[in-house]
Here is the input.
Amino acid sequence: MRDCKEQTERVADLVVNAEPAHNGAAQPASLPAPSAMPQAAAAPFIVCSGLVKIFRVADLEVVALQGLDLEVAQGEMLALVGPSGSGKSTLLSALGGLDQPSAGRLEVAGQNLLKLSASELTTYRRRQVGFVWQQTTRNLLPYLTARENIELLMTLAGMGGRERRARVDELLAAVGMSDYAHQKPPQLSGGQQQRIAIACALANMPAILLGDEPTGEVDWPTAQMILGLLRDLRERYGLTIVLVTHDPRVAAQVDRVVAIRDGRTSSETIHTPNVPAAADTAHSTHSTAQAAQREELVVLDKTGRLQLPGDQRALAGIGRRARVELIDGGILIRPVDDEHSTAITEIDDTTATSLYHSLYAVDPPEEDAKRS
Here is the structure.
C-alpha cells in the first residue's frame, strides 16, 4: 500500500491542484507538415540562452549545462541526442519545471522560468507540460485501468464528470486504445502502455509534451508507431514536442535533431528540401533518399565558439589545435601539421567512417533486421 500511495503522490504532483487546466486552453488548428515547421516566422516558443546548471554533491560541483543556447518553434517536434552525461535529461527537467537552472535565461511561451516562484513553477508544470517517461512505472498506476489512469489526472484538475468522461473517450480514441479502456497496465503490452501514457500526458491539454526515451523499451516497429502517433497528436492539439533519445533512427521522424555535448548545443540536423530523383535510378536506396533530406549544421554560441564532432575531427586529422583561414565564401579549418599524425592515430579510417555515418543512420541495426 505504501508503494501505491507514493505513486499516487507522484502523479498528483504533476497535475492541477484546484483550478482546471483546460480553462482558456483552446485547441489550435492543424499545423503544417513537419518539413515546413522550422520556417515559421513567429517568435520562438522555447528560448534557452546561456543556460547553466550546477549540481552540488557534498563538496563537489558538477556542471551539467555550460551556457547552453537553444530555440524551439511553437509546434515543432525536436529530438535531443548526445552521449550519456551530456546534459539532455537536465535540459528536459528544466523545460518541464522539475528543476531550475543555476543561471541563464529559460523562457517558455514568454515566461522566464528562472523568475518563477516555487508555487508558480508548480502551476506551470501542472497546466502547460505533459510528461512521458521511458519506464512505464513512472507513467501509470498499475492498480488502475487505462481509463482510470487518464481520468485520475482530470479529477485532480477539478474537471467535471461529464466533461471528464468525454475527454477520456476522446484521448483513448486518439491513441487507438478505446478497446483497452478497462485493462490495467500489467495486462497491456509495452507499446500499449506507452500509448496510454501519452493519453495521460495530454489529459489536461498541455502546450508542451516532453518525452525522456519514450521509445526506449519497445522494439523498432512499435517505436515507429509511437512516433507516428506523436506526430498526429502534434497536429491535432498544436503540441510542441521535445524528445530525448539515444536511437539515431528517431532523427528521421522529427523536424529537427539537436546534439548536445558537454552541456552545450553542438550541432543540429534539419530537414532540407527533397531533390526529386531520376525515375531510372534503380540502385538508389531508401536510406540514401532519407539522408539527402537532412543536413547537419554545427552550432555557434553567442561568443562564436563551436564544437566539432569528434569523428569529423578525426577524419580531418585535427588535434588539440587548428588553423582557421578566411577564404572566399567561408572559413577553412585546417589541422596543424605537427598534430596531424597524432589525431589520425586516435581512430582508424574504418572506425571513423562508421562513426560518421552511424549518427543519423535510418536503417535498423543488424540485430533488429534479423528479428524482423
User: Anything to note?
Assistant: The two ends are 41 Å apart (CA to CA). The CA atoms of residues 33 and 276 lie 18 Å apart. DSSP finds twelve helices and 13 strands in the chain.
